[in-house]
Amino acid sequence: MSNPKVNHREDVAGRANVQDTPELLAYYDQLEALDAGALWTVANKIEPWQPKSASVPVLWRYRDLREHVLRSTQLVTPEKAGRRVVYLSNPGRRDVSAAVGWLYSGLQVMNPGEVASAHAHSASALRFIMEGKGAYTIVDGHKMTLGANDFVLTPNGTWHEHGVSADGTPCLWQDGLDIPLVNALEANFYAVHEDKHQAVGFPVDDATATWGNPGLRPSGDSWRHPYSPLLKYEWGPTYEALQRYAKVTEGSPFDAILLNYVNPLTGGPVMQTIGASMQLLRPGEHTKAHRHTGSVIYQAAKGKGYTIINGQRFDWQERDIFCVPSWAWHEHGNASDREDACLFAFSDLPVMNSLGLYREEAYGETGGQQQVIA
Ligand code: GTQ
């Protein structure tokens, strides 16, 4: 038998603590030959006392990545590459191409006049626009024009394609998908549109005009999908809402001023597996630390700040991306005393919530701040 045997022992009542003997080792070999095993050799490992993320906290600095992303336009075409993306690879999750936990993320670039072919997959996807003019996405015939800090959905099963108009500039955006999760569940399908591109079937930006009016719902609507009909959330109204809300609330001790992007029909998350939010840290604000189940990927949409994750400080500025693994302590700070800072985030929190797996804990008795490890 070539498999190394590791017997995960713990000297705690109720936990597996069996000493290896020559007889037991022979027994384990016999079980293994039958594609079976003794639970007590793995029980402590497969039932940790609390979640043990394989992911590590990572900060991806835009100033380091941007030139490499742009360079890809000289190396491959969108036609050959399918999508021209530099993906974010967590050192603990390289085997599943995840940026953190079961979430994938990447930076996609397109030049004016370029179009990627229309496709559909079981993974749910989103984009957060970083820079450039003229970008658009078409989702099931709904064309959406995109500007910096706009947030757009390409939900599970929809036909979607991205491009940049001929009179635009090179555009970069962050993609976020649940590809690793859907692969872990062995439920991923992929299809390329038979015409390579889809016809635009509705007036441009109709989703936002129809569903993006706060507190107002069109009469006689007939949306039948399990995801939000509001496929694009624009930066202007989002930032305005944060500022308006900040005037009337203290905010959360852990998340400052945080607004979730929601499905206007349900008030729930934008898609079944991925949720997203935009939060505002007021000048000089430094939140208290907490931790929760679920993995989160952040992009600094505005300003400068820092996030302390399991005692490690990460200083970020506009367009930097970082991740907080499940059950990791984290707190956020705004590095400026004059400007606000905004963090876009997406996560698998809808999965945690709908499966009854969400847990949250404040740091210290009432929520303190972590000691930073040098
Ligand atoms: O455009 O749907 O970065 O399918 C990776 C996989 C983007 C997309 C990515 C994808 C997409």
Looking at CATH, the homologous superfamily of the largest domain is Jelly Rolls
Instruction: Give the strand order of the largest sheet, numbering strands 1, 2, ... along the chain.
Output: 1-19-16-21-14-13
Q: What's the number of structural domains?
A: 2
Helix content: 10-25%
Number of helices: 8
C-alpha Rg (nearest Å): 23 Å
What is the highest CATH level, the class of the largest domain? Mainly Beta
Distinctive features:
single chain; 374 residues; alpha+beta; Jelly Rolls; 2 domains; six-stranded antiparallel sheet; 8 helices; 22 strands; 18% helix; 28% strand; binds 2,5-dihydroxybenzoic acid
Detailed description of the structure:
It is a single chain. The chain is an alpha+beta fold. It is 18% helix and 28% strand. The chain is built from 8 helices and 22 strands. It has helices spanning 22-33, 39-46, 62-75, 78-81, 179-184, 206-211, 235-246, 349-354, and strands at 59-60, 85-87, 104-110, 119-121, 125-131, 135-139, 142-146, 151-154, 160-164, 171-177, 190-192, 232-233, 257-261, 275-281, 290-292, 296-302, 304-309, 312-317, 321-324, 330-334, 341-347, 360-362. The protein has a 6-stranded antiparallel β-sheet. Strand 17 and strand 18 form a beta hairpin. The longest helix has 14 residues, at 62-75. The chain is globular and about 75 Å long. It binds 2,5-dihydroxybenzoic acid. The site of 2,5-dihydroxybenzoic acid has 9 residues, from strand 3 and strand 10.
